[in-house]
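User: Run a structure prediction on this.
Assistant: Running it now.
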Amino acid sequence: MSALHKLIANLREALERGATLDAAATHADGSATPVAMAARRAELAAGFARELEAVGGHFLGTLSMGESAIRINDLATSLQARTAAVGEGITNGTGPIADLLARRNIAVLRPAPVADDAARAALREQLALCDLAIVEAECAVASSGTVAIVATPARPSSLTLLPPVSVILVNADRLVPDLAAAIAMIGPRAITNHRVAFITGPSRTADIEKRIVLGVHGPRELYVAVIWSGND
């Protein structure tokens, strides 16, 4: 079963469990048609999965946090990862993922605020030695398969640049239709005060003899999981 078919199956199950109605569309005659927010999220998730895979990314599915921890650990095992960097979460705690990785004898690095340039350089060196990185996105753009990462001291921008494999988590309620909606969700204060990276697929360049090469300016593999709390 393809990742897209798995997505559709997961979303159907989530909707069958009972989505609450969140909005209503009004016809010209004044009658109201209920519109489930869950259905809208399902539509955005399906579009995001399709566009992500079109640009060379891998969609892990719509998962609960518990399911995502298991899926990420299975992925780390299949990649024979020995080290992993786990960034601070936004709406979801990433501690359970780090704990499960550690229980499988994978050395886990949790970035923390550093005091000076020497400490930042040392952290970058450590991140460069990690086999994969796990980080939560601020939001994701369905129309292009893009994830937006807002850097913080405990979620540095080097986290998604240096390790060869990136695993990105994004909450289902942070899926947006287009770039304009993503910028609005991030907000001017975050854009002004933090580095914001918009990532569309794995890193690639054609600078060398006009041949596509992966992993030159960032990770060569990108995996994304949509966290759907309705699956809990």
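Residues 14-34 have pLDDT under 50 and may be disordered.
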